[in-house]
Design brief:
Blueprint (H helix, E strand, L loop, with lengths): L8 E3 L5 E3 L9 E5 L2 E3 L4 E2 L5 H8 L3 E5 L5 E2 L13 E4 L2 E4 L2
Parallel strand pairs: 3-6, 4-7, 6-8
Antiparallel strand pairs: 1-2, 4-5, 8-9
């Protein structure tokens, strides 16, 4: 996964538009989609680990985007899972410490 803000988009994996070329441009903030999140800041993603890998290799603020109903008390996580710094829902912002 790379951030290439001015690259042309082409149909990528799963038909999702992706940059065709371009240099990886670090993002100050990364908004990550998720299926669920827990009170500790862990997220359940879509299973490929793209965002966790990006978080480890880039200095960025990690923010999840979710509905409040996607909150869980606890999600299982492994050593490679990276905690979010915050989650934004329709009810407000949850900041994890």
């Amino acid at each position: 996964m790379v951030a290439a803000p001015y690259a042309a988009l082409v149909k990528g994996e799963y038909g999702i538009p992706a940059p065709e070329n371009g240099e990886d441009t670090p993002c100050a903030v990364t908004l990550a989609p998720l299926l669920a999140f827990d009170r500790a800041g862990y997220r359940l993603g879509y299973g490929k680990g793209y965002y966790d890998k990006y978080f480890v290799t880039h200095s960025t603020v990690q923010i999840g985007l979710a509905y409040a109903g996607q909150a869980e008390n606890f999600l299982p996580h492994d050593g490679h899972d990276v905690k979010l710094e915050a989650v934004v829902t329709e009810e407000g912002v949850i900041i994890f410490s």
